[in-house]
Sequence to fold (475 residues):
Amino acid sequence: MQLQVDRGAGQISMSGEFTFTDHGPFKQMVAELFATTGRSVILDLSKLDFIDSAGLGMLLLARDEAKKNDRELILRRPSGQVKRMFGVTKFSTLFTIED
Amino acid sequence: MFKWRHHSAAAPKLAESEAPPLAPVAPAEPARHDELMRRWISFAAMQQRVIRTLVSEIQQASAVVETEADNLSGRFRRLAICAEQQTARVDDLSKLAIGIEVDGEVVPIDRIAGLLEETLSDVVEKILLLSKDAMQMVYALSELNSNVDKVDSCMEELSKINRTTNMLALNARIEAERAGRAGAAFRVVAGEVRELSGATARLSTDMETELKAVTDGIANGHETLKRVATIDMSQNLLAKDRLEVLMSALIRRSASLASVVGDAMKEAEVISADVSAMVTGIQFQDRTRQRLEHVVDTLHVVDEALDELKETTMESLPPAAEGQELDTEWVKKLLDRFTLGDLRARFVAQILDGEQPAEAMPADGESANSGTVELF
Fold:
């Protein structure tokens, strides 16, 4: 997976496949964004092709972290398999998902 | 029955005693009168043949109709039983279409779909929880590993300090030796410091050993967690999606089947009702038979009356010189109107040729199916 961070906009753009092996960089990037000011942290998933159950677990941990910091985690423009996974797991009841 | 003979027997008596004298008749009149009476007798005889033939035809037709009606009634009764069984089967089918029987209870398909959806949602929720917990453990172990690295650095620092301390103790001991007796106390202190340094070095070695065990444990735990966390459950999660699609299709099919079976049920009920009505309708054939019996009975009475009247009339006539010929012209005209060949043949044989009508009823099994139907 590739990550691009826009600290000013409070946004991480993810592309490729989000799996267990990405836990280190992802955790670090999220921690960096939560250290910035602003209400929302946005994960742009428009170029993310695949997510596994570990990836879903990391998103849930990021959500917990956002709550601790009184921030909102927004998942933006999921598509394909990622969107289907969000549908099956009813992520829309846990996250703000923007199309 | 109608006592024609009695009345006609009384007539001569009246002529002899009380009856007024008859008007004078021309000599030709009695002969003409007798001729007319003989023609009437001839006509009456033909009428009787026609009546007997008609009676025979009615009885035979009635017998045929009764046999056919019995056959039809039997077939319709069998049809009614089949229709009822068919209705029952369709009813069973409608229950099957609605749901699946489990422990004697019919569970609707949509309820099954609901149960499956609940179960799968629960499984999905647990998979998510496991994934989250596993990743939390991974994060925690990573933190722990980082802390161990820091402790390792501290241990390195401690070793450096210990080496320096040991060097200082050694130097102090050398200086104490140089000082001679004046350095005796200093020598004791240097020895103690060296002992302390040695103890610290041993402790440091023990700690390094323990720390390595902790590091190895963390590494093993991390590997184990990695194996757990890298099991991709995404296909299992998407199985819920596929099963939901399948269940939706099953529900739609069940609804379609229920609709079709419902229509079949209504039609089966209509068929049952129609067949029952037909059975009832055929049973009214008894009433038709009774009506025909009355007709036949009436014709018998007319026949008997004609017999009596004929005999009475013949008694009042002088014997004919030669046999009276039958009046067949009108009968022939009548027979020309017949379009059924076998019927006409029977009428010719019985009325014109004077054969006796067949008394025998049609044998069982002889029906319209076994004969031929003459078409117009």
